[in-house]
Amino acid sequence: xxxxxxxxxxxxxxxxxxxxxxxxxxxxxxxxxxxxxxxxxxxxxxxxxxxxxxxxxxxxxxxxxxxxxxxxxxxxxxxxxxxxxxxxxxxxxxxxxxxxxxxxxxxxxxxxxxxxxxxxxxxxxxxxxxxxxxxxxxxxxxxxxxxxxxxxxxxxxxxxxxxxxxxxxxxxxxxxxxxxxxxxxxxxxxxxxxxxxxxxxxxxxxxxxxxxxxxxxxxxxxxxxxxxxxxxxxxxxxxxxxxxxxxxxxxxxxxxxxxxxxxxxxxxxxxxxxxxxxxxxxxxxxxxxxxxxxxxxxxxxxxxxxxxxxxxxxxxxxxxxxxxxxxxxxxxxxxxxxxxxxxxxxxxxxxxxxxxxxxxxxxxxxxxxxxxxxxxxxxxxxxxxxxxxxxxxxxxxxxxxxxxxxxxxxxxxxxxxxxxxxxxx
Amino acid sequence: xxxxxxxxxxxxxxxxxxxxxxxxxxxxxxxxxxxxxxxxxxxxxxxxxxxxxxxxxxxxxxxxxxxxxxxxxxxxxxxxxxxxxxxxxxxxxxxxxxxxxxxxxxxxxxxxxxx
Lengths: 425, 115
Hints:
The structure holds two protein chains of two kinds.
Chain A: H1 4-30, H2 35-56, H3 62-81, H4 103-110, H5 113-127, H6 134-145, H7 150-157, H8 161-178, H9 190-210, H10 216-234, H11 242-256, H12 281-294, H13 302-315, H14 324-337, H15 341-355, H16 357-365, H17 377-389, H18 393-406, H19 410-424
Chain B: E1 2-9, H1 12-17, H2 20-39, E2 43-48, E3 55-56, E4 63-64, E5 75-83, H3 86-93, E6 104-109
């Protein structure tokens, strides 16, 4: 028999993967006004599993066991609440739940494999409603669809559990008030609605990829959940648009390099100094495959271009051999699709590598009067870099110091201080 | 619109003699029959009864620990539907899957709640 820790670990993985799907199915059964009821049933099923498996060992098909348990608990609740007003049985989909002649069969229909995945995606689209703020969207997705505990969500965003509870409450209130019926968008609206979902997934990914402050475990969790959510969009015919493939490619390329970005002590490592042998080749080739699939159709989104840039970095044998020319073209196209001063700033870095410090300096001058940019640490850090290449050490140090003042990130500060030490030494 | 009740009688012996798989399949047929009526917005409600029970006899208040009816007369449950006429309701009742398992269906009009 397996040890208790083994069961806990298996259950934890299983729960992460299946809880969101079970919640989605149960929300369909009870209605979006009863999200808490759905979450309680899933929680109950998990506790039952823990209790039962502790004594009898893991069943052969733990997933089926969990689904069965949740289904049976849902039947109990339907029987108990048949005459209360909690559940709206006038809804055509729920009408047959009220009679014993049809309850079990109707319930089984809700739990059919082909419906479960659709319900899960439908719920994802429902969460990403434009009326729900983006931070509330992510909070709700992590908690209800990715099986995070309130504590884990709080740790992901470095806010209190109380704040998370309030965000969840607001989202559930929204669902209750508007009686939203989750569904996969119709073909004519799929692109617009998917764009919102993708933005949320990418934000979740970046929270894991960029946040140098929170702990490693949570960061990896956020990255893998973002990849998993995006993958579930790809697994469904009606939601696998080129844009979804492009984001999946982009995230795969980034995820391939995640371990080489920081030292074990949490210090940042610049792209030029990263150990390219440690990049995950499997993820890189997966990313290339997704990028190829993203190329069908006529859409060219920022995800396509960002993925193309990340791809060039991934395939370069070393920093010097990077195809900067190709990358510059992608940056130019990015700026055509949507002008963004931060993208422009990053383009200056590419100019620096491709054409040298003089041209880069010319380029960066174009945004020197931009209000936000002039207070952005990266602007000063790049100016420092440019002046370092121009051999204007004292100017470079001054820019680096300015950048240190402007960033809150401790690893960034450390990296910049290191550059100053190198120049002075 | 009038309401009618389908009273199901008998068939318990047949039910008991079937395997769980056969019973499951049979219930899917019930699901389909009732589901169709629900789709036409004619389904009101339904309950299923266990065969066991007590009967209280009038006058003496004597209680026997079984329903009064013979097995084939035993009420096993009901479905309430809306329909324009007894004829239409009877047509609907003909689709009851219980008929294949020796259950008879009695179609009766419900006294209206409002006159």
